[in-house]
Design brief:
This protein has 140 residues and is an alpha+beta fold. The chain has one domain. It has helices spanning 5-22, 31-37, and strands at 40-47, 49-51, 55-60, 65-70, 74-79, 92-96, 102-104, 108-113, 119-124, 128-133. Strands 1-10-5-4-3 form a 5-stranded antiparallel sheet, with helices on one face. The chain has a 3-stranded antiparallel sheet with strand order 6-8-9, with no helix packed on it. The protein has a two-stranded antiparallel ribbon with strand order 2-7.
Length: 140
Amino acid sequence: MNVNPLRASCAGAAIAIAAAGCATTEERVDKRVAAQLEKYELTGEERSCLPLRSVSSIRAATETKFLVQVGLNDYYLNETGGRCIGATLPLNRIQYIVPQNRLCANEIVTVVDNTTNIAGGSCGLGVFKELRLKEKPTEE
């Protein structure tokens, strides 16, 4: 039996790359977004949907926690139903296509590489948990 060495090495490389991608068990963190998220606390209010026109940005603090900016100064935490692999990487964006003018829990979002436009991981959104700035401790 003749084996093409180029084909065998490519197959071996593909398996190694796939295994390396699957071996990632540690969740990636965007330290800048995580630091911004630390400035806020939950209010206890939750919304299942947000009007799409008011969503200013969605940034990943981790692969399961998104900081959603609504308007200029309102923020929500969205904890996804699973890991959105690659969401915290600097050259990736979070993309969504929704049937209505609302972004809702259970909508599927996809991580897309900005340089190649290739879709990567995807995940389902959770409910939108309202955030407020933590109060600074008063000095006595």
